[in-house]
Design brief:
214 residues, alpha/beta, seven-stranded mixed β-sheet, 23% strand
Length: 214
C-alpha cells in the first residue's frame, strides 16, 4: 500500500492494494518490496524475536520481500507465504525463487481465515500491511491462534495506527478496508485467546506493530 511518507499518513491510492491484478498489480507489488514498506518492515521486525529454526507464515505476502527478511532472521527455518491474489503469489514466487528451490520457502494461494497449516505447527505468523483487508478479522485470528504453537508469536505491522484523519477519510471511500487503533487490536487479540500483547508505535509517522503470544 503506497502512502505519503509524512504524517498524517494520507494514502495515495495506486491500483488495488488489497487485491493486485495484472501488469499494474505486478508493478505495485514490486514497489511494495522497497521504499516506505521496506522501512516499515525493517522497523517492525526489529521488535520481533524469531528463533533461528522457526517455521514461519506470512499472511498477505504481496511481493515476497518480507519472506526473505524472515529467512534472514531464521536461517535454519522455513517460511511460507500466503496471499489471496494470484498475481501476488506469482510475484512472491519470483522474488523468492532461490529460497523455494532450496526448500526453504514456499508460496501458496489462500486466505487468512482458512489456513492450510496444521494445528500448533508454526512458531511465527506475520501480517504486514494486510489486516486492513481481512473481511472477517475474528475468524482470521482464530485460525492464526490454531496454527501457532503454544508460545508462538503473531506479529502485526501496520503503516497506519488507525488515528489518522486522512486515512479514515480514505477508508470511508472504500467498502473493502478497515484500520485498527491500538485499543481495537488489543481487544481483538485478547478475544482470540492471545496473551502477552506488546504494541510499539512511531506516532510521528503512524507506524504501529503488535506482537501477541499463543
Amino acid at each position: 500500500m503506497a502512502t505519503n511518507t509524512s504524517r498524517p499518513g494520507a494514502i495515495k491510492p495506486e491500483g488495488n492494494p488489497g487485491f493486485p491484478e495484472g501488469d499494474s498489480g505486478v508493478a505495485m507489488l514490486h514497489r511494495m518490496n522497497a521504499g516506505n514498506h521496506e522501512l516499515l518492515s525493517t522497523w517492525g521486525l526489529g521488535k520481533l524475536e524469531v528463533p533461528a529454526d522457526a517455521r514461519c507464515l506470512d499472511i498477505g505476502c504481496g511481493g515476497g520481500a518480507n519472506l526473505l527478511r524472515l529467512l534472514e532472521l531464521a536461517p535454519d527455518g522455513h517460511v511460507t507465504g500466503i496471499d489471496h491474489s494470484a498475481c501476488a503469489v506469482a510475484t512472491s514466487r519470483e522474488t523468492c525463487a532461490e529460497a523455494i528451490a532450496q526448500g526453504r520457502a514456499d508460496v501458496l494461494e489462500g486466505s487468512a481465515d482458512d489456513l492450510p497449516q496444521g494445528s500448533e505447527s508454526l512458531d511465527v505468523v506475520t501480517a504486514f500491511e494486510t489486516i486492513y483487508f481481512w473481511p472477517d478479522f475474528a475468524a482470521a485470528l482464530a485460525e492464526i491462534r490454531r496454527v501457532l504453537k503454544p508460545g508462538g508469536a503473531f506479529f502485526i505491522c501496520n503503516e497506519d495506527d488507525g488515528e489518522s484523519e486522512a486515512m479514515q477519510a480514505f477508508v470511508a471511500s472504500r467498502d473493502d478496508m478497515r484500520t485498527y487503533t491500538e485499543a481495537q487490536l488489543r481487544e481483538a487479540l485478547a478475544a482470540a485467546g492471545m496473551r502477552e500483547v506488546s504494541v510499539y508505535r512511531k506516532p510521528e509517522i503512524g507506524y504501529l506493530c503488535a506482537i501477541a503470544r499463543a
